[in-house]
Amino acid sequence: MVVLVLGLMLFFYFHSDKKGVIEQVKSAESDLPVLQEISSYELFCANNEDINCWDISKQYKEKNQKKSPEVILMDTGELDEKLRQKISLIAGNGYNVNLKFNGDMHELLDKLYEEDLPDDVIDESLKENQPHLKEVTFIPPHKPVYWGKEPKVIIVIDDMGISKKRTADIISLHYPLTVAFLTYGNKLEEQIASAEKSGHEIMLHTPMEATSNIDAAPDVLTTKMSLDELAGNFEKMLNNFPKIQGINNHMGSKLTEDFERMQVIMKILKKRGMFFLDSKTSAKSRAEAAAAEEGIAYAHRHVFLDNNNDKDYVLGQLNKVEKLAHKNGYAIAIGHPKTATFAALQEWLPSLPDKGIELIHLSEAIKVLHPRFDKK
């Protein structure tokens, strides 16, 4: 009888505890998540012991201390508060992704990368079908750039280093990709070393202020900073990436429109002998003008690959990249470590030799576009 009673007591104890955990997990999906003794964030941390999780349990036990969990948003547009809360509760600081906790993690991470980015192709050549230009003979100011017998394609993958799983997926593609790491990932040296072994070129994906009021990064460069503060913060970022040859902007639709502050960025890049890739998150970007003013190597993105997380869509964007490369000799595309992007690249990359297209690192394209860069 005693054994039976003890057994029943243990059963109800563990059953009650499990039910309490489940209720906390469900609360993460409600309109107003409630953190009590255990949160979904803490469950995430428990399932990912290598993550530097900060202790939030005391914050919510103390009545007068309230602090929202940190939300890392990668190239995102406006996210409603419910989604922000859910992401922060489940993914925490955004580092390692472990599906042991929540089956919707893939969907949530795909939304992390969304931004209202232009689908258009930026064509550097003259527009066609302009009758008034037919009788005009153009004399180019310099010899046209020669890209060799095969057109060249550059694929840049942004937002690397945050989700270890997705970063590892891209690293598993043993092709000369150019991968841009954010500044605040966990174990960056280890992830970068793996990418280099895979044949990838490394860049710094520099967090810059966006026009919309969103959390771009914990160390974002903003227009509110003084010029000296901006320069100091940018130098700190670069010091963590000693081997790279260039950078591009993470978000930055607001900062890249600020000519004076872009000049600060370009002066530092000139001092270090580096190039700038404009992600073109704003049509009003002044990055090219600032780069020309300081005399540094510059290039810009032509195509965004994955505004939609759909494999067929990404393959369609890659087809645009091919056509532009055949027309202009080269094309630069930017994508993100999304599930559909990874799947599309797995299929598309092996097809390039048969299509007569060569995949190269961005620095190789920069050397053609700016021959003096190769002599630095």
Could you characterize the architecture of this molecule?
The chain has about 375 residues and is α/β, with parallel strands linked by helices. It has two domains: about 15-110, no CATH class; about 130-375, Glycoside hydrolase/deacetylase (TIM Barrel, Alpha-Beta Barrel), CATH 3.20.20.370. Helices cover about 40% and strands about 10% of the residues. Helix 11 packs across helix 12 (about 340-350). The longest helix is centred in the first third of the chain and has 26 residues, at about 1-25. The radius of gyration is 24 Å and the shape is globular. Residues about 10-45, about 45-80, about 85-105 and about 125-135 have low confidence and may be disordered.
Question: Which terms would index this structure?
Answer:
alpha/beta, 12% strand, globular, 40% helix, 14 helices, 2 domains, 9-stranded parallel β-sheet, TIM Barrel, 376 residues, single chain
Query: What general form does the structure show?
Result: globular
Share in helix: 40-55%
Q: How many helices?
A: 14
Count of extended strands? 9
CATH topology of the largest domain: TIM Barrel
Judged by helices, strands and strand pairing, the structural class is: alpha/beta
Spatial extent as radius of gyration: 24 Å
Low-confidence stretches: 8-45, 47-81, 83-103, 124-134
Largest sheet: 9 strands, parallel
**Order of helical and strand elements:** HHHHHEHEHEHEHEHEEHEHHEH
CATH class of the largest domain: Alpha Beta
Tally of discrete structural domains: 2
The overall average pLDDT, rounded, is 74
Name of the CATH superfamily of the largest domain: Glycoside hydrolase/deacetylase
Q: What would CATH call the architecture of the largest domain? A: Alpha-Beta Barrel
Estimate what percentage of residues fall within beta strands. 5-15%
* First-last Cα distance: 86 Å
